C-alpha cells in the first residue's frame, strides 16, 4: 500500500505538470497525427488492403510517438537537480519507476484513443466493430513498451546523444512485443477473434508482467548508474 500511495503522489505531480505545460502530450499527438497523414498520402490503399496493413502502420506510428515521449520522460526532473532530490527522498524508488511508467502509458493511451479512429476515417475502413478489441491489444503492447522504455530511459539518462541511443537500444529488445501485438491485431481484423494468435497474447501479457516486476526490483540500481 505504501508503494501504491507513493506512486499515486508522483503520478499526480507529473500529470499536473503536463496539464500546466501541455508539452509531451501535444508533441506526441501532433507527431502521431502527422505520421497518419503521411501514411495516408503515401499509400493509396483500398479498404481491404488498408485493413491488412492497419496493424503494422498503427503500431509503427505508436512506437515512434511513444519513443518521442520516452526521450522527454525525465526532462522535468533534470533541471535544478530535482531528480537528485527525488532519489534522496525517503521513498521506494520502485514508486518512481511505476509513476513514470503509468505517466507514459496515460499519454500514449490518450494519443491512441484519438489516432485509431482517425486512421479508420482516413483509410475509409468499413467496420468500426473491431476497434475496442484492437485498443485492448494495443494497450497491452503499450504497457510492455512503456515498462521497458522507462527502464532504458533512466539507464541512458546521463548518456551523450541519448535521443539517438535510446531507440537503438529499445527497438531490438521490443521485438517480442512488436510481433505479438501485430499478430494479435491481424487475427482480430481477419477473424474477429484471437484464434491461433492466443499464444501471442500470452507472450504479450507475460512480457508485461515480467518486465514490470523486474523494473520495480532493479530501478534502484538503474538510477544510480
Write structural notes for this entry.
The structure is a single chain. By secondary structure, this protein is mainly α. Helices cover 82% and strands 0% of the residues. The chain is built from 10 helices and no strands. Helix 7 (131-155) runs antiparallel to helix 9 (175-191). It starts with a helix and ends with a helix. 36% of the residues are buried.
Helix content: over 70%
Radius of gyration: 18 Å
Low-confidence stretches: none
End-to-end CA span: 28 Å
Concise structural overview:
The protein is built from ten helices and no strands. With 225 residues, the chain is mainly α.
Key features?
globular, 10 helices, 225 residues, mainly alpha, 82% helix
Q: How do the helices and strands line up, and which of them pair or pack?
A:
Elements lengths: L1 H20 L2 H19 L4 H25 L3 H4 L3 H7 L4 H30 L8 H25 L6 H12 L1 H17 L6 H25 L3
Amino acid at each position: 500500500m505504501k508503494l501504491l500511495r507513493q506512486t499515486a503522489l508522483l503520478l499526480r505531480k507529473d500529470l499536473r505538470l503536463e496539464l500546466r505545460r501541455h508539452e509531451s502530450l501535444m508533441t506526441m499527438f501532433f507527431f502521431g497525427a502527422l505520421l497518419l497523414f503521411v501514411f495516408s498520402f503515401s499509400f493509396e490503399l483500398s479498404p481491404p488492403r488498408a485493413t491488412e496493413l492497419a496493424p503494422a502502420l498503427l503500431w509503427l506510428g505508436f512506437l515512434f510517438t511513444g519513443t518521442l515521449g520516452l526521450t522527454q520522460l525525465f526532462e522535468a526532473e533534470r533541471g535544478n537537480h530535482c531528480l537528485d532530490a527525488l532519489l534522496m527522498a525517503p521513498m521506494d524508488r520502485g514508486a518512481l519507476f511505476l509513476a513514470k511508467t503509468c505517466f507514459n502509458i496515460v499519454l500514449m493511451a490518450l494519443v491512441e484513443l484519438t489516432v485509431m479512429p482517425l486512421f479508420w476515417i482516413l483509410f475509409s475502413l468499413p467496420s468500426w466493430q473491431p476497434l475496442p478489441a484492437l485498443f485492448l491489444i494495443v494497450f497491452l503492447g503499450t504497457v510492455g513498451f512503456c515498462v521497458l522504455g522507462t527502464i532504458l530511459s533512466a539507464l541512458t539518462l546521463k548518456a551523450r546523444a541519448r535521443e539517438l541511443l535510446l531507440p537503438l537500444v529499445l527497438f531490438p529488445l521490443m521485438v517480442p512485443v512488436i510481433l505479438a501485438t501485430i499478430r494479435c491485431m491481424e487475427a482480430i481484423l481477419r477473424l474477429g477473434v484471437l484464434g491461433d494468435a492466443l499464444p501471442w497474447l500470452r507472450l504479450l501479457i507475460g512480457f508485461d508482467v515480467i518486465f514490470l516486476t523486474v523494473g520495480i526490483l532493479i530501478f534502484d540500481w538503474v538510477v544510480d548508474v
